[in-house]
Write a structure and sequence with these properties.
Blueprint: E1 2-3, E2 13-15, H1 19-29, E3 32-33, E4 41-43, E5 50-57, H2 61-72, H3 77-85, E6 97-101, E7 104-107, H4 112-125, E8 130-132, E9 137-154, E10 157-174, E11 181-193, E12 199-203, E13 212-214
Parallel strand pairs: 5-9
Antiparallel strand pairs: 1-3, 2-13, 4-8, 6-7, 9-10, 10-11, 11-12, 11-13
């Protein structure tokens, strides 16, 4: 086995090519690189390699309700169907993903169901043994915050007296669903609501860029 300090970037193929980001992911998740002729190793369950963090930051019950409303808001069904068409995935009610990568659902929108999906996945990974060339790892970080604005501008639209909820999701998995592959993505959703909690505008929904690494 060979230290990542001397790992050749030419030994990795990317889809799409995002060299710096993937290199950083490898450094964080793998202590060594695979040499030709190496055999996969049995890795016992290790919760320390599978971290889940969820932070919702309401200051009061009203903000808590605004975050809940933002997480419950469903993506535009027509746009979701169009995005899912390339993957030939049928869209059903309350669906937030539009394709699969390495057996993992990829988000079109950040909803409460999406957060629960990744949280459950990472927690389950920490309870499982794996067989792979490098030690498997997975991480999910989710943050939800809300702020009141007397005036808020989004694109060409101006809103008065609204609550703006920002949802941020980061996810990665390496050598979990595939012995030689990993993936990661980040996604952000902004939901603008009126005083009654009615959704006025959502931005950030849509296809997600998902770099794939392979050793």
């Amino acid at each position: 086995m060979k230290s990542l300090d001397h790992f050749s970037i030419s030994n990795i193929s990317f889809r799409p090519i995002v060299l710096i980001a993937v290199a950083l992911t490898l450094i964080e998740s793998a202590p060594a690189a695979m040499l030709e002729g190496s055999e996969p190793k049995n890795w016992p369950a290790d919760p320390e390699k599978h971290k889940a963090e969820v932070q919702r930051k309401p200051d009061d019950k009203k903000q808590e309700a605004m975050i809940a409303a933002a997480e419950a808001a469903q993506p535009d069904p027509k746009a979701l169907r169009e995005a899912a068409a390339d993957s030939k995935i049928a869209v059903v009610n309350h669906q937030w993903w539009y394709k699969l990568e390495l057996g993992t659902r990829i988000p079109f929108a950040i909803t409460a169901d999406a957060v629960e999906y990744y949280l459950r996945m990472v927690e389950n990974n920490g309870k499982q043994a794996f067989k792979s060339y490098l030690q498997p790892s997975s991480n999910v970080n989710y943050q939800a915050a809300v702020a009141f604005h007397k005036e808020f501008t989004s694109g060409e639209k101006v809103f008065q007296n609204v609550h703006v909820v920002t949802l941020k999701l980061k996810f990665s998995q390496n050598f979990v669903s595939d012995q030689t592959s990993g993936m990661f993505f980040t996604k952000e959703r902004v939901v603008i609501l009126d005083e009654a909690g009615k959704v006025l505008l959502i931005t950030g929904d849509g296809p997600t860029e998902v770099p794939i690494l392979a050793i």
